Amino acid sequence: MNVFSKFPRTFWVANTIELFERWAWYGFFMLFANYLTGSSDMGGLEFSQSQKGMIMGVGTGVLYFLPVLTGAIADRYGYKKVLTLAFIIYASAFALFPQVSSFAAVFSMYIYLALGAALFKPVISATIAKTTTPETSSIGFGIFYMMVNIGAFFGPMVTLLFKGRSQMIFYVSAGIILLNFIALVFYKEPEHTEESEQMEIKERVSLFQTFGEIFRNMASIFKDLKFLIFLLIAAGFWTMYNQLFFTLPVFISQWVDTSALYHFFDTNIPFVSANYSPAPGVMDAEFVTNMDALYIILLQIVVSTIVMRWKPLNSMMTGFLVCSIGMSLTLFSQNVLFTMAAIFIFALGEMAGSPKITEYIGRIAPKDKKALYMGYSFIPVFLGNVFAGIISGDVYQSMLDKVVITEKFAAEEGLQIASGLSTNEYFNEVARQANMSAQELTNHLWNTYNTSSMWIVILSIGVMAAVCLFIYDMVTSKKTGKSD
Questions:
Q1: Which of 34, 229, 328, 450 is the most exposed place for a label (fewest CB within 10 A)?
Q2: What three-state secondary structure class fits 37?
Q3: Which residues lie across from 279 on neighbouring strands?
Q4: Considering all CA atoms of the chain, what is the largest pairwise distance in Å, rounded to the nearest integer?
């Protein structure tokens, strides 16, 4: 308990802000993949997996690239002002999202939403970095990451209650983000550094000149070869990690038999089966995926306590490897209990590795450029999202998409299916003409078209990132005489 008393008030306010922001974000984001690709009779837009991959990959990638600029802007103009602007953009984007449905309009609205998130991210991470010390950073970032996952857990659990009216997903997130305007009243600007004070003197400098200074700072960062290599390795981890949001909800919705989980809740906790089930015998895919956040809420402090004395790179290597095994196994089976066990494995690796990435960059960042370096910490996440979009888009569509495979099966069998059907209606009609139930057809497609092989792709990406990090550690340790 002595460690907790060493955190200043701003640390706890920042964690509260992060909790609400993540609540709002994941409240829609966990449902976003199935919203984009889902059947129109369930409120989905019926975009292809490739379109989904482009929106989520490029859009979320932009979200994580912009902090390279917004971090420096926050250092210049003040964290509190930037947070206020971020929440205005957030709330307006969520309110406007339900009004658009075309690919171009949805893509544009998501980019606008990403701008708000990009303004927010480096500021809140830098606040945590500035309000922790080398002694408290491991526990501090562990608490921060636990807050992320409390929001990530409760966000989808609340919005799933309104899944029958898809527009409410966005309105609920808008309402949650508005709570942060109250939290901002208690937010105190972190201690100013010499550099930030010099920037305040230059307030009259034009925005154009400000960006010129930002790009000069960028050039100086790119001279740090060690840092750049680390960012590229971390990009491999994020490519694998992001399948949790890009691919897994769609995979569960399309392939996994969740009836065992449904009957358990229907017998023991009927509230859950009544509110988190799109149909009798079926659990919401996002409910299952959301177990990752629940595991982290329960175990993050325990895992952080275990790894707090580990060298950050050792913790990351372990986390990368365990995450890779867990995520690949989530795509291996149609059994929901197997899927939940695989998510648990993934969560253990995530708890050990992911918070250490931010902690590691926070440690090596110059004290007077915390927000700038935290902005650069999002570069691998940017790359990871772009690559994840390709994996969950084109790769998933060619290897695992149930819609494409069903169409292939119908063509091979010579079935005549009426046009203008929703994806659910199309699948049910194929099953009827094939004299199968929906589950029987799903099992037949799974066994016939080698659908489970995609797990190898995910495992390969994650293991390669862990191996490269091991080599990175070996090389940098020899040069410095110690391991970071």
A1: 450
A2: helix
A3: 282
A4: 76
pLDDT tier for residue 263 given thresholds of 50, 70 and 90: very high
Angle formed at CA 426 by CA 422 and CA 430, multiple of 5 degrees: 175
Supply 338's token pair.
């197997």
Burial of 209 (0-12, 13-18, 19+ CB in 10 A): exposed
Burial class (CB in 10 A: 0-12, 13-18, 19+), 332: middle
Which residue do the tokens 């084109």 mark?
394
Structure confidence by residue, pLDDT tens digits, 282-338: 999 999 999 998 998 888 778 878 887 788 788 889 999 999 999 999 999 999 999
Within 13 Å and on the Cβ side, how many CA atoms surround 441?
24
Q: Measure the CA–CA gap between 18 and 145, rounded to whole angstroms.
A: 9
Residue 75 region, left (φ>0) first, then alpha (ψ -120 to 50), else beta?
alpha
> Are 218 and 69 contacting, i.e. CB atoms less than 8 angstroms apart?
no
Tracing tokens 């994996």 back to the chain, one arrives at 391
Q: Which two tokens stand for residue 13?
A: 């306010």
Predicted confidence (pLDDT) per residue in 66-90, tens digit: 887 787 778 778 899 999 999 999 9
Residue found under tokens 């949650």:
176
* CA distances to 55, 345, 423, 445 from 246, in Å: 10, 18, 19, 22
CB atoms within 10 A of CB 76: 22
Q: Long-range contacts: 270-275, Cβ < 8 Å, 24+? A: 275/160, 275/161
Range from 14-18, 72-76, 139-143 that averages highest in pLDDT:
14-18
